[in-house]
Amino acid sequence: MTRTSARAPVTVVMYHYVRPLADSPFPRLKALELADFHTQLDYLSAHYSVISPAAFHAALHNGADLPNRPCLLTFDDGYSDHYDHVFPALQDRAMTGLFFTPYMSLIKRQMLEVNKVQFILACCEHSDRLARKLDSYLEMEGYDDIASLRQEFGAANRFDDPDVAYFKRMLQHALPAPLRAKIIASLFEEHVSTDVTAFAETLYLTPDQARDMRATGNEFGAHGDLHLWHAKASAEQLAQEVSGSVRALETIGAPVQGGFYCYPFGSENNTVRCAVQQAGFTTGFTVVPDLYTPSADSALSVSRLDTIDLPRSVDAVNDPWLAKATVP
Asked: Does 185 map to a domain?
């Protein structure tokens, strides 16, 4: 295998849900179809060198060389998908990945509000109707300038149309936490399930499963306590997010000192990076879509591509990132 410099650009890929989507109870969930995951792994195997979390860490912090076109696979949120579907697929190809899981879902077995919102959206065919229902809730709570809220929080992005973006942002951080929780709980019970505890138990991987995955070379990193937007959190909330992350990793035996931290929603700033670093983490992952060139100066701001940015066919010829990843 051709070796290259530790400063060669690394293609860090970000995944979330990976499952047999079409035949699932939630076919509209924003997830990667399992068959597409397999073919994307085939593509990455053919054109990149998939590296382990340990190899990435050694290159970033110790200057170790990397293979040509290095690629690191990362998986956010700690879903049972990752144990049931991702883990076997990686094992079959002698690959490993880096997995990020919040404390409340992994250890406390409580469903995160971010996931409740995702499944509410998955159960409703018309997102515009959900957005209007949210407006009705707000009007009942005395909000009288819905148009301004729509303008501020309803900008489309590369993942969501304006209605979905508005619905998510309002229920992720824009509204006061008690009101968010009240609205989310009501909509989840109406559209998804009346048994949140049972739903959470099947949605997330368990500590024992995480330990099994670590035993074969996969690694786990921190992903907050409640999966809050860190840069929008109060000082007290940020401290709780980071300390919860530490407890999660300690429970499964994953490293904190010199460990990995993934900012939920990619929400980070200098205050967040300092809090993460003070807890002992030395590598932080964002959602900025770009290749990452290892550097000690940017170790707490590692950029990542989303799975949608890369081909899902081994014969694909249109991959602009491949040329950027190739060192002359």
From this structure: yes
